[in-house]
Amino acid sequence: MSNPDVPNFDEMFEPDGTVRPAYRDYANWLDQQEPAAMRRKNAEAENFFRRSGITFNVYGEGDGEERLIPFDMVPRIVTGSEWRRLSRGIEQRVRALNAFMHDLYHRQEIIRSGRLPQRLFSNNEAWLPEMVGFNPPGGVYTHIVGIDLVRTGPDEFMVLEDNARTPSGVSYMLENRETMIAMFPELFSRIPVQRVSDYPRRLAKSLAACAPSATTDKPVIAVLTPGIYNSAYFEHAFLADQMTAELVEASDLRVIGGRVQMRTTSGYKPIDVLYRRVDDDFLDPLTFNPGSMLGVPGIMDVYRSGGITIANAPGTGVADDKAIYSFMPEIVEFYTGEKPLLPNVPTWRCAEADSLAYVLDNIADLVVKEVHGSGGYGMLIGPTSSKRELADFTKKLQARPENYIAQPTLALSTVPIFTKAGLAPRHVDLRPFVLVSPNGVDITPGGLTRVALKKGSLVVNSSQGGGTKDTWVLDD
Amino acid sequence: MLGRTASSIFWMYRYLERAENTARLLEAGARMALTRGADGAEDEWRSVIVTLGLRKAYEAAHDVYTGPQVCNFVLRDADNAESVLKMVESARNNARASRTSITAEVWEAVNEGWMTLKGAMARPVRDAALGEVLRQIRREATLVRGATYGSMYRNDIYHFARSGTYLERADNTARILDVKYYLLLPSYSYVGSTLDSGQWDNVLRSLSGRRAHRSLNAGRMDARGIAELLILDGRFPRSFPFCYEALSDNLQALAEMHGQESRANTLMQEAKNKLAAATIDTIFDTGLHEFLVNFIVGNQAIATAIAEDYLFAD
């Protein structure tokens, strides 16, 4: 559905077919490979994933069917200098996000100054009154952030989305690299690629640095999962395993003596830092959703009295809101005093009358998204939609304009994937993973590259037929 | 480790052991059914269902006992909550829930076993394929056991795993014996006069005990010799003393690691002492059936104590 007037930027090949510098060593190696051998490797990769149980569950499909996320063998390559520039932009953005969270739950200077309208929060379910005036341990709200980036040209990276709630996908970053090393060890002796394998160690260190005041010894970290039927269970288990942390479920936890404790075979033991992979709403049935079976009654009281660190902090989901996203350039400038290094994708806020009028007139050319939606659900891609779909969406827009934002359909960059007929360009995005602690912002060089496997498609979500690639940041 | 994780490990190995023993039983039953006439075959198939404690569930769905129906019910029928396929799935779910406590080798063995068996039992298993499917079940269980033995660190996780295996195996052996006891000894006569040596052969087959028995008894088949081997011979890996020696070692290790004497371990030592004091004569004098029922109840009490001692649940 790419815009035919604007040619896509292909990250591997120039328009005349010459290989761009980042891919030169890889292309040389690829030229020496037998096509038949490469096809065998492709099948090998799938077996590798299936055996090791790297699957995700798709919501809404029968029997909690487990699926593989397709893996493509052609790496997505970023040069060291491109990465350094990106890193600076990401760090700036993440620092601003954290400062923004603090402000939102304290004096709300950004609203007082008139830079952000009050209405964004008054009806925002992700904004939690329970967090007002509270200072999370170490002053950190967003311990783990995933910043989704898209690229439209040699120097044009833009932020598509901020994931400050519970970003997922980091296990794929790690496993994709493991798979590549297992399949093509010679590539890594030829080409200097920065390593990602120490992410779990960095995560554990970063979380430990945010331990609460009640911690007496080496901080005890646990990963809280909704359980084996959750779509990201594999990742929860993977991270706990790699960090040598306990993987706990709500049924293992209880509040005893002002601490959150886990039931071990020799009694209850306190947890210092809880890396939770459940939503705010399910965290504490006493404070939030009373029907939650996934939560720990009383955990919010323990949290507020300094007995535990919850990562990410409750209430950080505000930043995942697409209406807030549209204000990120103002937010970055307000808290850092600098111009944003990474631009947003231009965004129309349908809550504003002028924007709404524009969006309605141009709906066939735009991507319209729900403000609170995620995973590629509840969105309209104008150019590939039928008249009927456009009309239906127009009605939704008119009924609840504040529920939507719109963006232009971008000429997203492509990276080749391996197909039976050889290399073929497909659209990609990139989610680097960012850790925040009192010691600073730590960005692992790489991330999760998601790729739309269908020709021309711009939807990279795994729930909608997207695949993944290993992402290389060159050590140059 | 978490109590829930200990529970998952314990049950993962119980289900694997149970799936394997169920396949053994079915294998022996199928063999017997083939060698007997139509009426005899129906008896054999019924006996398989009774041994597995599935009579009620089976009869709710079927009027007669036929090979294809029994095999389908035991292996894969969606109406059977304790089908082999369900057991393998439960084992795999428990492995998934304790993924951070088992090695990649063990996980892959369980996961691949589940994929293989799910594929093999995706449709009703044809007569011609039954033997291969049953062998596959045993093979997959053996692979997990091998991966466990060869790759797991000998800590509390390992001891919970082994406890599950031996506790389940002792239970399964007792159940198989108990049902055959009924069929074979309606009158109280145990000495030599065999009713049908094929029945006993069947028991030996389902417990992989034919070779051991032959080497001890030079081909003579009687109730006493078989009972002696299966109940009291500590060298036979599915006998009570063998299972209890191993179970007791593992429970002892767990008690030491947790720095306290556990109730499970106390019960275990008592049961072991009782078993050591038993002779084949005293067992037959008080009644084999009573002995087996008491054994199963005692075994269950140990399982309950393990779950309580180590906080499997809140």
UniProtKB/TrEMBL annotation, chain A:
<dbReference type="Pfam" id="PF14403">
    <property type="entry name" value="CP_ATPgrasp_2"/>
</dbReference>
<feature type="domain" description="Circularly permuted ATP-grasp type 2">
    <location>
        <begin position="75"/>
        <end position="452"/>
    </location>
</feature>
<dbReference type="InterPro" id="IPR051680">
    <property type="entry name" value="ATP-dep_Glu-Cys_Ligase-2"/>
</dbReference>
<dbReference type="InterPro" id="IPR025841">
    <property type="entry name" value="CP_ATPgrasp_2"/>
</dbReference>
<dbReference type="InterPro" id="IPR016450">
    <property type="entry name" value="UCP005522"/>
</dbReference>
<protein>
    <submittedName>
        <fullName>Circularly permuted type 2 ATP-grasp protein</fullName>
    </submittedName>
</protein>
UniProtKB/TrEMBL annotation, chain B:
<dbReference type="InterPro" id="IPR051680">
    <property type="entry name" value="ATP-dep_Glu-Cys_Ligase-2"/>
</dbReference>
<dbReference type="Pfam" id="PF04168">
    <property type="entry name" value="Alpha-E"/>
</dbReference>
<feature type="domain" description="DUF403">
    <location>
        <begin position="1"/>
        <end position="311"/>
    </location>
</feature>
<protein>
    <recommendedName>
        <fullName>DUF403 domain-containing protein</fullName>
    </recommendedName>
</protein>
<dbReference type="InterPro" id="IPR007296">
    <property type="entry name" value="DUF403"/>
</dbReference>
